[in-house]
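Support request from a user on the community tier.

User writes: "When I paste my structure tokens into the form, the page sometimes reloads and wipes my input. The last time it worked, I copied everything first. Here is what I submitted, just in case something in the input itself triggers the reload:"
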């Protein structure tokens, strides 16, 4: 077990690599001290101070580990590092191992420190790649421990990281220090190699899953556990666990930023390395920032999944685009018997879940009794002498009188509700119901114009399912019809109504149910419960109008020959997912691809075909664009989203995000 498994469950999660390293008052992940002894590869990276400190740390937390059981490391565990050591404390703890010459210039001392810690770090990478990974993979190929794919997923791209540092980064630093007397600079070398450090993003995003796999397979496969334990007993491991060694790459980028920041501060104003060193520091900072966004999104999804598990994983609730705003117990006031009963609320960005605790908590902690959409919701405080600290939540589905335990708690709930309502209203103001384009300009009529002017019909070939009930069309049992009031393409069941339309001389016309209710003022009794929107039920026209990019593309099959053509969208409010529609006006996507962690690869142009790919581990998706310019735009946007960068590029915020439909 790792010494980190006893870390308390932190609600705030893992803090980022980049931002707060620049502010001493808010340190982030604290690096574990590494050996700084100059070593010949592949010598062990353990110094006396390192092994003593980590052994003491393990001993102090051993009892807690037994209580925690076989739990794996997680991003939440890593977040506890930020409170343990101040920003520059980790370096002072290494001083006994660093043999720096006091007469040397300050900038050279820091450069030597960078070199020596890099040597120790490469030794640790050698241990991970050439010892742990190689031996575990050898046993996996023999079928004695775990599947080969499991070993690959545990170590992610550690081989690429090791090769980069041992063959490029470390030799370049060694060469620069050898030539320091005639060319005292390292900034240009780091600036040249810094872009390759983006490969750490994949490793960091996979870290939590990797540690979980170690825990799971240690329980399932005794030979796997025994082999890891055998390697950990070797002298080269310095009495540290595999999980501890795997943490080294997670901590390395913050160390680079700290050292470079100090290096730049110590450089004389006239130093020839100042400009390059400042640029290198900025590049390292951006690498940390990109990975930080991916880590934050990963933790958000982790926390969301925990909530869904507590709710029993109901299909109409589980949606990765949701955001949990607030949760907690509350008292529900009964209007019948004037009493209260304990309930539990989960407030998301788009809905309120009104729950009751399960008496027998098997599989789920709560049972969802009611779901109220945030859209059109209202909240206000009540002045009730009998029930103090009460407030009213009114939605389309239900109105609730709720009592908090204190005035402070009541104000916190009211603020959370109002924040969610304000955010929903601001998003609604930017919604567009049609895609900007020559053949897709089908704006919906304003409500007050329904029946008074003829609508622009949505073309049949732009939808593959009913725009009201979202059921797919077919040629026999569910054919296409148009609502004469709003112009939507709907099925027979959803358009089995007649209403007088003013623009058609008040004659009766076929209209959809929504328009019928509005025009006639009649309430339609539903013979089935309203279906909640699922993950893929995002209207193509709506999300296209507020997207980072959308257009027609063709997704090729595994052979790269055939494939299906569709409408591809990356929404602004869900920029880490690619949604694929059969047609540009569909109200439901048929496929979605989470972009986080993918690599965008450009393929050589062949026979005037503009090809590119999304690649992650064994998954490969190949796309064909109509033009080279469109291909480059997709590659640029997908690469940013895959790296966790959700804001538009500079200069493109006002540009049209959507291409014209074909």
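"...and here is what came back when it finally went through:"
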């Amino acid at each position: 077990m790792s010494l980190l498994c006893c870390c308390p469950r932190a609600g705030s999660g893992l803090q980022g690599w980049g931002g707060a390293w620049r502010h001493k008052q808010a340190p982030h992940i604290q690096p574990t001290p590494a050996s700084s002894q100059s070593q010949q590869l592949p010598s062990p990276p353990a110094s006396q101070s390192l092994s003593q400190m980590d052994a003491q740390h393990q001993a102090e937390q051993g009892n807690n580990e037994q209580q925690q059981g076989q739990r794996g490391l997680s991003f939440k565990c890593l977040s506890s590092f930020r409170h343990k050591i101040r920003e520059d404390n980790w370096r002072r703890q290494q001083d006994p191992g660093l043999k720096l010459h006091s007469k040397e210039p300050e900038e050279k001392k820091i450069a030597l420190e960078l070199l020596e810690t890099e040597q120790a770090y490469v030794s640790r990478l050698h241990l991970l790649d050439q010892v742990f990974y190689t031996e575990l993979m050898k046993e996996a190929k023999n079928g004695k421990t775990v599947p080969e794919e499991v070993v690959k997923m545990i170590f992610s791209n550690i081989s690429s990281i090791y090769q980069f540092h041992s063959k490029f980064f470390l030799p370049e630093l060694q060469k620069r220090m050898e030539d320091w007397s005639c060319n005292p600079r390292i900034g240009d070398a780091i600036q040249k190699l810094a872009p390759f450090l983006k490969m750490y993003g994949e490793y960091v995003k996979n870290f939590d899953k990797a540690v979980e796999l170690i825990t799971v397979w240690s329980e399932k496969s005794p030979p796997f556990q025994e082999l890891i334990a055998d390697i950990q007993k070797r002298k080269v491991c310095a009495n540290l666990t595999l999980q501890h060694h795997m943490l080294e790459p997670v901590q390395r980028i913050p160390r680079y930023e700290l050292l470079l920041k100090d290096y730049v501060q110590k450089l004389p104003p006239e130093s020839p390395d100042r400009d390059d060193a400042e640029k290198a520091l900025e590049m390292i900072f951006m690498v940390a920032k990109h990975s930080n966004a991916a880590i934050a999104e990963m933790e958000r999804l982790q926390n969301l999944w925990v909530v869904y598990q507590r709710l029993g994983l109901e299909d109409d609730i589980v949606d990765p685009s949701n955001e949990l705003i607030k949760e907690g117990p509350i008292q529900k006031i009964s209007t019948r018997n004037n009493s209260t009963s304990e309930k539990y609320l989960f407030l998301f960005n788009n809905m309120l879940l009104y729950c009751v605790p399960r008496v027998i908590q098997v599989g789920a902690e709560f049972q969802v009794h009611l779901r109220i959409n945030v859209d059109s919701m209202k909240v206000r405080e009540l002045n009730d002498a009998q029930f103090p600290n009460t407030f009213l939540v009114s939605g389309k589905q239900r109105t609730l009188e709720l009592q908090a335990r204190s005035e402070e708690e009541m104000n916190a709930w009211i603020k959370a509700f109002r924040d969610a309502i304000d955010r929903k209203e601001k998003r609604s103001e930017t919604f567009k119901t049609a895609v900007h384009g020559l053949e897709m300009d089908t704006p919906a009529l304003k409500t007050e114009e329904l029946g008074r002017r003829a609508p622009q019909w949505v073309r049949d070939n732009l939808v593959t399912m009913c725009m009201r009930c979202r059921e797919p069309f077919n040629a026999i049992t569910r054919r296409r019809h148009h609502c004469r009031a709003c112009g939507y393409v709907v099925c027979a069941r959803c358009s089995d109504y007649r209403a007088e339309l003013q623009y058609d001389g008040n004659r009766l016309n076929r209209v959809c149910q929504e328009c019928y209710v509005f025009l006639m003022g009649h309430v339609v009794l539903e013979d089935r419960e309203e279906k909640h929107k699922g993950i893929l039920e995002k209207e193509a026209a709506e999300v296209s109008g507020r997207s980072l990019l959308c257009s027609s593309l063709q997704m090729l099959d595994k052979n790269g020959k055939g494939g299906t053509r569709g409408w591809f969208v990356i929404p602004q409010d869900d920029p880490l997912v690619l949604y694929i529609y059969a047609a540009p006006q569909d109200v439901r996507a048929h496929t979605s691809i989470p972009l986080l962690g993918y690599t965008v690869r450009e393929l050589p142009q062949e026979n005037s075909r503009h090809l590119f790919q999304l690649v992650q581990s064994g998954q490969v998706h190949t796309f064909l664009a109509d033009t080279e310019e469109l291909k480059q735009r997709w590659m640029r946007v997908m690469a940013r989203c895959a790296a966790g960068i959700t804001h538009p590029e500079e200069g493109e915020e006002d540009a049209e995000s959507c291409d014209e439909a074909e």
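Agent notes: The reload is a front-end session timeout and is unrelated to the input. The chain has 16 helices and 18 strands. The mean pLDDT is 75. Escalated to web team.
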